[in-house]
Amino acid sequence: MNLQCRVDLASKYKSGSQIARVLSEEWCKRELYCPACDSDRLTGSKPNQPAVDFSCVKCEQPFQLKSLRNWNPKKIVDAGYEAMLRAIRADRTPNLLVLQYSSGWLVQNLVLIPRMFFSESVVEKRKPLAPEARRAGWVGCNILLSEIAADGKITMISAGVPVLKNQVREEFSRVKRLAELPPSLRGWTLDVLRAIRRLGKSDFSLEELYGFESELKSLHPQNQNVRPKIRQQLQVLRDLCLISFLSPGNYRVRT
What we know:
The chain has 255 residues and is an alpha+beta fold. Helices cover 31% and strands 24% of the residues. It has helices spanning 16-31, 81-89, 165-175, 183-198, 206-210, 213-219, 226-239; strands at residues 42-44, 54-56, 62-68, 75-80, 95-101, 107-113, 123-125, 140-144, 154-158, 161-162, 203-205, 243-247, 250-253. Helix 4 packs across helix 7. The longest helix has 16 residues, at 16-31.
């Protein structure tokens, strides 16, 4: 994999954001493969596909690219808040590619967030634009990367070193069954999965998860029976082969 962007393309543009978009998009079309199937090529998006920059030529998985010079592991700026919520509820969010480049236009880091990991819990509402702004009152959002479980942040390039293609595809395959859940139910599952990951160990107990009861209640105020819901989601995660049952009240994260 050639990590160098084509700097010669920058001569046609003056805006820094335009240059970053053109160079990083050209790199993706030239060098990236599909993590969801065995296709080794992505193509530019079709017309009238909002928020989609590429799609797989074989399985048609959609991808959106966010390229930036400075890496923020906690959050990334996205588009309109209400538009993002509508996309999540309608299950129309694309897979997100977060790309960081160096001052010499070398790709340094690339993280894939599979589309099924977007829930309302990871969307942060921003302040409305000021009255004097061109789009006064418009409300954008941030994607809270720190609130996405580690399973949903698949490294494709780290510190200038590409991860093996087979490894990336195995990680995607491990979590792809989350897409089988309807968006209205998937949010709970993702929040419980994130809580499990925050415990920081492979083996965990139901009692330890109950420690997140108040936090989960605040994320889902419409549900007053949080503990039964936690137990239900553990069964869902078992069915999806993301965790294993060890003994009553004890579980293990599957890798």
